[in-house]
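Archive entry: two folds, one per protein. Generate the first.
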Amino acid sequence: MKTMNTKYLHLCAISLCAVSCNGWLSQDGPMTNRVEGFFTSAQTAIQVVNAAYVPLMWEYQDTYFSEFFIGDVLSDDALKGGQNISDMSDAYDLENFKAIANNTLVQSYYRAQYQGIARANLAIEQVGAMETDEDLTENLKSTLVGQARFLRALYYFRLVRLWGGVPLTTSPIYSSEEWKIPRSTEDEVYSQIIADLEYAQSVLPKKSDYPAEDLGRATAGAAQAMLLKANLYWGDLKRNAGAADAAEKYLDAEQWGAEFISSQSGEYSLCPVYADNFTLEGENGPESVFEVQYMAEGTSDYGEGNGFSRGTFTTILTRSRSSYFANAGWGFNHPTQNLYDEYEASDPRREATILVLDDDKITTPSDEIYLGNRYLTLKRTMMQSSGDYLTLDHASRSPINRIEIRLADVYLLYAEACLRNNNVSPAKEYLEKVRSRARQGGNILPQFPSYSIPDYTNQYSLHSLSDTPEDLEMAIRHERRVELAMESHRWYDLCRWGIAKETMDAYAKTETEQARSHMGGFVKGKHELLPIPDEEVRLGSLKQNNGY
C-alpha cells in the first residue's frame, strides 16, 4: 500500500553549480506514483474504502490483542485464562492493574486504530475529490465517503474511551513534518466523532438497500446507533466530571435512539433464539446492526502479524484446552463466578454464554482450571449441538464475525438514555423488550430482575428490583451485563458509569484465593484509562495519562 499512503514529493536535484531544475529533472522517475494519479476509477475508490475496514479485523501483531482482552478481562466478567498466569503476560498485567506503558497488547491495539484512521482519512480526502462518471456516480461516491467517515468515528471512539483525549487528525499525513500531533481533549475527539457520524447517517443506505454482496458495510442504522452510543458515553464523561452540559448529550442520545427506532423500523428485529446471534449461520442476522466481517481462508500466517489472514483468532483463543473436546483451543477468557451468579437462576442466557467444565471434561487440571476457575465462554467458539467444536479450515483462524452493535445493545442504550432524561416509560418498555426475548416464550424472568447485586459498599446481598427510577437504573445495568456478557462491553460500561473502582473492589472479594493473590489494587483516577504506549509518548512528545 506504499503508493497509496505516501504522497509523491517533487524533488529537484541541486547541482554543484546551483543551476535551477530543468524540465527533465522535474519529470517523474520510473515506478513513481502520485496519489492523484491513483484515484481514477470507481473500483479504486471501493478498494480504498474496503481497506479502511480491515484494521477492525486485526487481532495480532507483537502479541494477541483481541477485543475480549480489554472489554471482558479488565472487568469483573472474565479472568485471562490460558495455560497459566505466564501465558499472555501482557493480558495478565492488564487484568490485575499492573500494566505499564510498555505493554505490548496496549501498543498493538492503539496502533491498529490509527492504521484504520489513516486509511479512512485517505479515502475521505481522495474519494471525496474524485470526479463522478457513469461508474462512480454521485450516490456511490457519497456512500463511500460516508462509510469512511463512519469507520473513522468508530476508530476514534475506540481510542477515546480507552485513553481519553488522543491525537486527532482528519487528513492524511504525507510527510514526517506532519505526523507529530499533540493530544486533543476528549471533548474535541467526541465532537469529531459526532460530526462524522451525523454525516454518515445522512448519506448511508439502510441495511436492506445494500445488495447481498455488500452485506456488512456501514449503514444509516449503524451510524444512528453509534450516535446514540457516543452521545451517551460523552454525557457520562461530562456527568462524572461534574460538567453542566451533560444533560445536552443525554438529550442528543435519546433523540438519536428515537430516530433509529423510527427510521429503521423493519430493518432489525431481535433474533427469536438468543444463542443464534453467535453462530456462523446467524451472521449478519436480523439483530445485527454492524459486525466485523471474517471469512474462512487457509492462508498460513504464523509470525506475520496484522493482515495476513482474514479469519479471527478469537475462536481458537477462547475454546477449551481440554482434549475431551475435538478441535480444542487455548483456553482464554474465563467467565467469572461473579458473572455466573449475576444471572437469575431461570435465565437461559447463562447456558448460552458460559460453558461449565465438569471433572470428566478436564484432562489436565493445571492447564485448564485457571486460578480456581473452570468456566469458559461459549460465544463465537462454534460449539456444535453434538458438544464438540466445529473443525476450522485454518489451524488458528475462524470465519465467525464479531458483532460490534446488535439491536439488544441499542435497546438497552436507548432505555438508559431515556432514564437519564427522566423519561421512564420508554426506558421500561425497551428494557422489557430485551427481557421478553430472553424468556423465549416461557413463564420465567419477572419484569424486573431479582438477583445478588453489589451495593458498592463491598458487600453483596439479595435485592429484588422494583418500579422506581433508582431500581430501573440498576435493572438496566444488570440487563446489559447478562445480555451482552462476553461480548467485550462490560469494562467500558463500568468506566462510563463511574463505578469501576467500587465494582472491581467488591468483585475482588468474591474471587478465589488464587485469583486474589495476583490482583493489584484499582486506583481511581488512573485505571479507568490505559497508558499511552511509551513509544508513542516518545515519538510524539505526548503527555502520559495520570499515574503511568
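Generate the second and append.
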Amino acid sequence: MAKVILHPIGSSVEEALAPQDYETNVERMKERTDKLDGCRAEVRQGWGPKYVDRVHKKGKMTSWERIEALKDPGTDVYPINTFVNYGKTFGDGKGLQSPSAGVITAFVKVEDRHTIVIANDNTVASGSWWPLTPEKIERAQEIALRLRIPVIYLVDCSGLFLPEQAATFPGKTGAGHIFKRNSLLSASHVPQIAGVFGDCIAGGGYMPIISDKVYMTEQAYMVIAGAALVKGGKSQQITSLGIGGPDIHVHVSNCADERVPDDQTALRKIRQEIRSLPSTAIEYYRFGAAPAPPRFAADDLDGIFPSDHRVKYDIYQVIARIADSSLFWEMFPNTGLEMVTGIVRIGGLYVGVIANNQQLTPHPHLSGRSRPGGLLYREGIAKISAFSRACNDDGIPILWLQDISGFDIGLEAEKEGLLGYGSSLIYTNSTNEVPMITVLLRKASGAGYYAMTGLPYDPIVQLSTPMTRLAVMEGRTLAIGAYNTKLDDNFEITSEDPEERAKIEAGMKAVEDRITGDMDPYKSASQMDTDEIIAPSELRSYLEVLVEMCYQSTGYRRVKNPRIWSMHDLHVLTDFSPFKG
C-alpha cells in the first residue's frame, strides 16, 4: 500500500537569515503592513460615521455588523476584493468614492460551514451598484459555483448608482450577469439564502429572488421600480414599502418566504437554514490526519522576504511556514531545480505546491555554469506541467507560489522550444478541473504570470502581498525597450547633444515611473486584477480557509484516496536514488 511520506523542511529564522537582514526585512514589511491595515480600515468605514448613524437611526444594522452577527463565534471573516475601486472617484465630477465598490464579499464560517457572503454596504449610497460592483458580486458567485459553497446574500440595495449606469448596466459582465450567476448556482444545487433588509430596487430586487429561501424584515421591500418612478410614470401616490413590502411579497406574490421583525431575527433564521444543510466533508478528506500548525511561526514570513525585490530568498523556508508541521514531500527534486514541486498538508488536507526557486541553480547541460532563479526553463516547465496534471488526476488542489520574472529568452530558449513547452503548460492549467489557488509573492511578470495560473487562468482565488509587482516587465526594462534605438549595446544613450540626452533621460524616467506605478498592488486590486492583498504573515490563515473550502462539498469533483494517487507512480519513475538491497 502506497503511503504519503512527508519530510521536515525549513529552519529557524536565526539559522536561515543573518540577524541584521531579518530585522531589516521585518522593519520594511511593517511599513507595508501598516499601510495595508490603514487602507483596510479606510475602506471598512464606508462613507463614515455619519452614514453609520443614519443606518442605526432607521433601526437597522450596518452590513459589517450583520456579518459579525452572522458568523460563528470566535471565527474570523476573510474578505476578498476589498480594494475594488480604491482611489477612484465617480459622480460627474463630484469626487464621490465607492469604498470596496459598495459591496462586501467575504468567506464567513456559519454553523461550522464555510459560506460566501455578498452584502451591500448600506453606508455607501444606500448599497448602490457602482462600476465594478457587478463584477465583484459575480466573482464571489463564481467562487461559490466552482467550490459548491453556500451563498448568503444580505441585500440592502437601492439599485444602480445612476450617474455611472453606463459602466454598470450593459456589457457581458454588467449587472444583468449577476442574475445569470444566480441561475447557474441554482442549477448546480448550490444553496442560496437571502436576507432582504431594506431597499431592494430594480436589480437589487431581482438578486434575491432565485435564492432557495428569502427572508424579509418589516423595513424591507423588493420592487422593479421604486415609488418615485411609479409616481412619475403612473401618477400613483404610493410608497415603495406599500407596493413591495413583506405584506405583498410574503403573503400575496410569494416572491419571499418569510417575514421577520428585524435584522437580528433574519440573521438567526439564515443561520438555521445553513445548519439544515449537509455537514462538511472536511474531516472525511483529512484521511485520519489532524490539523497541525507549522513548526515555524507564520509571522516569520514578514521577515523572510528581502526588502529589495531583486534579492534572493529560500522558498523552502516559505513552504515550511505554511505547511502542517513543516512537512513536505518533494516531487522531481533532481530536475528543473528552478521550480519546486511537492505535497503538503494545510489544515490536515492535502495540497500540491508549485513554487519558483529564486536561487542560482546548476545549468543542466553546461558544466560549471549556473542559471538565475525566478525564470521558467525547459526542464522546470516540463516538471510543473507533469506535476500539475498529476494533481488534477488525483484531485489534489494546487497552490501556486509565484515569484517569477518570466520565461527564459534568447537563442538557447528558442532552440529548446520553450514556446511549445510553455503552450503545453498553459493547456494543462487551462483544462485542469481541480481547484487552484495562486499567490503572487513578489514578482508576477510577463507570460510567466500566465503560465503559473495567473488570474486569467481561473484560480479560485488569487492573492497578492504588499510586495507584489504585477506587470509585463519592470519599468526600467520597458523604458530600455521603448528607447532602444537611442541606446548602445550597454543601454547607454548614444546622442552627444546635451539637450537631446536630457530629453531621452526624462522620457525614459517617465516610462519607468509610470510602469512602476502601474505595478502597485493597490492599483491591481482596485481594477480587480487580483482578488485580495494580504500580509505574508496572514498567508497561512487564508490558505487554511481556502483549502478547507476546496474539500467542504462532495460529489462535484474527483478526490482520490491517497493510496491510489498517480503521484506515487511519478515518484517511482523519477526516483534516481541508488537501489539499496
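Annotation attached to the second fold: Residues 229-235 have pLDDT under 50 and may be disordered. The radius of gyration is 26 Å.
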